[in-house]
Amino acid sequence: MEATAWGRGADWLLDQLPSFLGAFDDPSAFVPRHRLLAETQRRRPGLRLGRTGLVLESLIPSVLEQKVTTDEAYRAWRLLLCKYGEPAPGPAKGMHVMPAPRTWSLIPSWEWHRAGVDSKRSSTILRAVRVAGRLEEAAAMSPEDAAARLRLVPGIGPWTAAETLQRSNGAPDAVTVGDLHLPGTVGYALAGDRDADDAAMLELLAPYAGQRHRATRLILLSGRTRPPAPHWPRAHYARL
Predict the structure, then answer these.
(1) Could you give the CA distance from residue 225 to residue 44 in angstroms, rounded to a whole number?
(2) pLDDT surpassing 60 at residue 232
(3) Which of the listed CATH numbers 3.40.630.30, 3.40.50.150, 1.10.340.30, 3.40.50.300 matches domain 55-155?
(4) How far is CA 34 from CA 31, 186, 203, in A?
(5) Would you say 174 and 166 are in contact if contact means Cβ atoms under 8 Å apart?
(6) Measured between alpha carbons, how far is 183 from 199 in angstroms, rounded to an integer?
(7) What is the mean predicted confidence (pLDDT) over 117-138?
(8) Would you say 156 and 65 are in contact if contact means Cβ atoms under 8 Å apart?
């Protein structure tokens, strides 16, 4: 593997790159018990769960995704990153580095509003960046202890903790509960149940204990997803 990096963190990034790309993941630990997952695993042998070791870089986007559409969350992330992040070094134009915790803490309320972020999500982010050092320690913890550490911050629940640890820790069992679409997707793929709830999803994933997040990733990669549900109306919070 060859890689080139630029800027102050170049050496660190090159050292961490194998982990980013899933070099230390163990896909052999997953034993498919459904034909769909066995076939998807065969077709997608390169699937690896990466580990960034960067908790806030996964946590803040996950908080922005709470209770809104993906497009709204991406828009908010893009606006805040471009306004408050530093331009990334190297030849790529238009990319930005995520702001430091102190920079997040100084964003005024009207800029959150302009980005379409309501006070509940912005307050959660502000509480998180005040204890950024303690949260970053979660990258070296077991998934259970890491989730408990994140959930000490008001506004961070099981959904946000799982979405964060899937990326920062490469946690193969950090299954996302409380999601609007995932239970129905898993239920439809494994049992033809498009109306499955969290309890039904967890029951279907029980044979994959320890690898439930990997199982859901394979389901999403399989292409067998339930017919689309009606979309939530956009809140257009920034226009209120």
Answers:
(1) 17
(2) no
(3) 1.10.340.30
(4) 9, 12, 14
(5) yes
(6) 8
(7) 98
(8) no
